[in-house]
Design brief:
62% of the residues lie in helices and 9% in strands. By secondary structure, the chain is α/β, with parallel strands linked by helices. A 10-stranded mixed β-sheet has the order 3-2-1-4-5-10-9-6-7-8, with helices on both faces. It is elongated and about 85 Å long. The termini are far apart.
Length: 686
């Protein structure tokens, strides 16, 4: 190859803006890689770095990258992803319980900016009514640019965040409805048929969201339970399809993606491997590209385009950001939020980006928005995104500190979980269930144990154990959890499990059993060891259906079980599982135990949908059969001999399970009981 040819290729390769796909994508990845590292040193969130990097490399900066269709495509997917994650991470029960707060905040954050913005645009700046309406609508709308910050701080279930997300949907829907009316009014008079078609479109959208998606998702996750690689593709497809249907119905795509996340919420537990993949890919790729694309739209040169442009930009920026602060302040007073929560609401809802551009660009395309407002909008986007990121980060850290101080002590304790593996078919369900029931801090690793018969330690048994560990490690790694594997040679499975638990100071043991094991002496051996040798919280699981498709947990609790030392820790785990699955819990217990459960749930502010049915005596245990449905999981509390809640019929539980509950999902719970020989060291792990 000649020197001139090589030089020509180099010149073409480095032609600005870059057109080579490899060079473009490499530059984007380098920005995503180094922005967090750089801005962490100056104590600013990486979101600001991504936006400013977009300004620098964009067409109005160094012109390294062109804002073409590819950036428009990936940027739009990014903002859809933000709203989708917002819906997916919401605590549905908390959201329903506080939907009034979200509606009230949505009203404030829509009306206050709109009512302040319209007279300023119409009387002070002298714009027409249609122009003033659109600009006032632009003030009302906002984009949850800073939502990844609260997500990383584990604040997505905080009431302030829930209200902000609910308010976002309300205000953006109202603004986009105003946009549709103004656009139709400018093009042609708004007639009765417009409202009829709008109503029909919204009805179609609601049927799709609340009927079609749940039925399709239920079928998909049941039909393709083991096709884990397809799960993410399905979820991403539903997000984009919902956005497309939303736009077909005359609504903005972000509304469809949010509701898609809301509906899929119950199918995707927050601690699951699928949720980890969704957050990882979104926060690593789609959302950063969207933030870079926002920066690429900013044209700093508009500041120097004349005094009028500067004056309009200053006025509109003050109104846009100031009115959002005013809405947050009034919401704090009315909803009794703390000052830190007020700052968090303001930080989340002060940023203008996606919906703002949709409103202004639509008006600009038909000539009712001039270049001064367009340029001012670009400045608002830059300033508001910087303000939003800084305020959300600082307020979020303060709110997180407040939450940690107010959390019950038992929720802050670390737990050490041992999962005994034996059956390859039950590994996935056992690991996933244990992860959903454990503390989400992920500081303490899980322990996976495989017992090999010391008298038959063949190569095939060793290989089987290795395969079990490999499968378990894949599942744990997919959900960003650490797993430590332990192989033990022992002549007795029950002894091997309990001795390993002692050696590793385990607090909870999870066992998986099959229908064949239920009818054997395995449970009797475990029960004997539990009563004779060691005190622990033990969960014995038999469940053959996908854990994320469960709708209810029926929990049978014997009288006085709440007095056992291990009752509350195991109770919190069951409630954690219910919250992760967004399921309903039905307690069957004595009247005194029910009173204790109600008081505990209220005092600890546990957000579960609970129902209570009196189980007057344990002899009525078999009556639970008539309440069990296909998508139910039966949880049975068992206690040891000598305990205040022990009942002689506990000895017959294995027989009952085999004869009457063979096709039902079961969790047997053995809570730790106080014994004279239990050391203080063991008690520290409760």
């Amino acid at each position: 190859m000649s020197e001139s040819t090589i030089w020509g290729n180099i010149k073409e390769f480095f032609h600005l803006p870059f057109e080579d796909p490899i060079m473009v994508f490499l530059l984007v990845l380098l920005i995503i890689l180094f922005s967090p590292l750089l801005f962490r040193k100056i104590k600013l969130h990486y979101i600001i770095g991504l936006i400013l990097a977009g300004v620098l490399v964009g067409p109005h900066g160094l012109n390294l990258l062109a804002y073409d269709r590819s950036f428009e495509l990936l940027g739009k997917v990014g903002v859809l992803y933000i709203m989708f994650l917002a819906g997916l991470e919401l605590d549905i029960k908390e959201f329903n319980a506080n939907k009034g707060k979200g509606l009230l905040f949505g009203t404030f954050t829509f009306l206050l900016p709109f009512c302040l913005g319209f007279p300023i645009c119409y009387f002070l700046l002298g714009y027409s009514i249609p122009t003033s309406l659109l600009v006032a609508g632009m003030f009302s709308t906002h984009t949850l640019i800073s939502y990844p910050i609260v997500s990383n701080l584990n604040l997505s279930k905080n009431q302030a965040v829930t209200a902000s997300v609910g308010g976002t949907i309300f205000t953006d829907t109202a603004v986009l409805l105003i946009l549709a009316v103004v656009m139709n009014q400018v093009k042609s008079a708004v007639e009765g048929m417009f409202w009829i078609w709008m109503g029909i479109s919204i009805a179609v959208f609601l049927v799709y969201i609340f009927l079609f998606i749940p039925l399709l998702s239920k079928w998909f996750f049941e039909r393709f339970e083991n096709e884990k690689r397809l799960h993410y593709i399905y979820v991403l497809s539903i997000m984009l399809l919902s956005a497309f249907v939303s736009e077909l119905c005359g609504l903005e795509g972000i509304i469809g993606s949010f509701f898609a996340g809301l509906i899929l919420n119950r199918f995707i537990p927050h601690s699951s491997a699928l949720m980890n993949r969704i957050e990882f890919i979104g926060n690593s790729l789609f959302i950063p590209i969207f933030l870079i694309s926002v920066g690429m739209l900013v044209n700093i040169q508009v500041i120097f385009s004349g005094y009028k442009a500067i004056i309009i930009a200053v006025i509109l920026s003050v109104v846009a950001i100031g009115s959002k602060w005013l809405a947050a302040w009034i919401s704090q007073v009315c909803l009794h939020f703390s000052p830190n929560q007020r700052s968090l609401i303001f930080g989340l809802t002060s940023s203008h980006a996606a919906a703002t551009l949709a409103v202004i660009m639509s008006g600009y395309s038909i000539g009712i928005i001039d270049e001064n407002i367009l340029n001012a909008t670009i400045i608002i986007i830059l300033l508001s995104c910087i303000v939003s990121s800084v305020v959300t980060q600082k307020a979020g850290e303060r709110v997180q500190k407040d939450e940690m101080e107010n959390k019950p002590k038992e929720e802050l304790l670390q737990n050490r979980i041992l999962i005994a593996l034996s059956n390859p078919k039950s590994v996935a369900n056992l690991i996933e269930t244990a992860l959903l029931m454990t503390n989400s801090s992920k500081k303490e690793p899980l322990y996976a144990l495989n017992i090999i018969d010391d008298q038959d330690a063949s190569i095939s048994q060793v290989r089987k154990g290795q395969q079990l560990f490999e499968e378990a490690e894949k599942i744990a790694a997919a959900s960003d959890n650490r797993l430590r594997t332990i192989t033990r040679y022992d002549t007795d499975v029950a002894s091997g499990i309990l001795h390993t638990a002692k050696e590793n100071q385990v607090t909870d043991i999870f066992l998986g059993i099959s229908n064949q094991v239920v009818g054997s002496t395995f449970l009797e051996k475990i029960n004997e060891k539990i009563q004779k040798d060691f005190e622990l919280n033990i969960f014995v699981l038999k469940n053959n259906q996908p854990i994320n498709t469960l709708k209810r947990l029926l929990v049978a609790i014997p009288e006085n079980a709440e007095k056992e030392i291990g009752f509350l820790p195991t109770f919190y785990r069951i409630c954690q599982l219910v919250k992760q699955l967004d399921a309903k819990i039905v307690f069957h217990a004595s009247s005194s135990t029910i009173d204790f459960l109600k008081t505990t749930i209220k005092r600890k502010k546990i957000s579960v949908s609970a129902e209570y049915r009196e189980l007057a005596q344990w002899e009525d245990f078999l009556m639970l059969r008539k309440f069990l449905k296909e998508k139910d999981l039966l949880v049975i509390y068992q206690t040891r001999k000598g305990g205040g809640s022990y009942h002689i019929l506990f000895e017959k539980i294995p027989y009952y399970l085999k004869k009457f509950f063979e096709n039902s999902g079961i969790i047997l719970v053995y809570p730790q009981q106080k014994k004279e020989d239990v050391s203080s060291q063991n008690l520290l792990h409760l």
